[in-house]
Amino acid sequence: MNVRRSAAALAAIGVLAAAAPATAAPSPKVTVPAGLFGKGDPTYDGVWRQSLALLAQHTAGEKPADRAVSWLTGQQCADGGFASFRADTGTACGGKGAQTDTNSTAAAVQALAALGGHDDVTGKAVTWLKAQQNKDGGWGYSPGGPSDTNSTSVVVGALAAAGEKPAGLRGKGKTPDEALASFAVPCDQKGGGALAFQPDKKGKLEANADATAAGVLGSLGKGFVVEPGKARDKAPACASDGKATPARLADNASAYLIGAVAKSGHLMSAMPGAENQPDFGNTADTVVALAADGRAEQAKKPYAWLEKNAAKWAEQSGPAAYAQLILSAHAIGADPHDFGGTDLVRALDKLGPAPAKQAAAPEKKATEKSGNSVWWIIGVGLVAGIGVGFLFSGRKKNRP
Length: 400
Hints:
Strand 5 (about 365-370) and strand 6 (about 370-375) form a beta hairpin. The strands form three sheets. Strands 1-2 form a two-stranded antiparallel ribbon. It has a two-stranded antiparallel ribbon with strand order 3-4. Strands 5-6 form a two-stranded antiparallel sheet. Helices cover about 40% and strands about 5% of the residues. With about 400 residues, it is mainly α.
């Protein structure tokens, strides 16, 4: 669910994106519309970042502004799908117009299902998503495109959020669980337990941390919002004996992720041509994935690393980045108002229309130290997490 466009999206448009901040100056050909979060060019991530921003506000106990929600619902195409961005909603989608995709549609469904009151919009979107399922049980970024782990997982999360039962969905053949299992790297191979984004041209599966984090959520039938729960006793190990159930796939994938962050506490960028540097977005995704699989203890190390290092990244990258960090905090029961000294919720609120309801930040009573009264204002608010059932780069996040 990286702040950048998904690997599927990149493949679809033939672009290799570097880790450019989402807050970069808007394209002179694109006007950022009122109601949209962020100031960067929304061409490739408008619906994605808006969906994550609204979902994060809602998860943190806020009521998003009506005009921000209306902007998102107004992006829906006549067939029920969503494109990454429709500069002119009076122009029909398809043809020379905006192109619908599964990632944008699934993100919008997760946000609107959580907010409630948009059954007409989510209903049409769910019908559209079901119609895009491939014979192998999965979904690709574009209608008819080859299935990938990230797109399959974000769609599963959307269907679950909308009250569907995606595990048994076999519109054209196999189920989503079967599709995800086909992307899993065998335990006895390099990167065992991880998931690949897609098989390469020779059918080989290469471990991909971003796809692996997405795959944990997809195999568990969960969306972007994960409720904090009781931690499981034992850390997982990749195992291939017995039945290859979705739960086993999630445990194997978690084992890979735990190993990947064991030494440094973070993942490294795997984007082709990118500088060798920490990957903040995928590390946040890893926190959510581990928490979803009951690995809250193991999720604390990458979360602690994010607390120390990710505030500047979020400031540079924009609303989707803040949303990712808020959702990672929520997943382990941490306070997003006090993220290493940064109030993530207020920082996100400043990038879009002010929420209708904003959580209050009470003051902590004064304490005496060295004869001086010191007042500490603490960020607050127990987050009222209301979960829905990325990324992957997509979410708009993932990368191959």
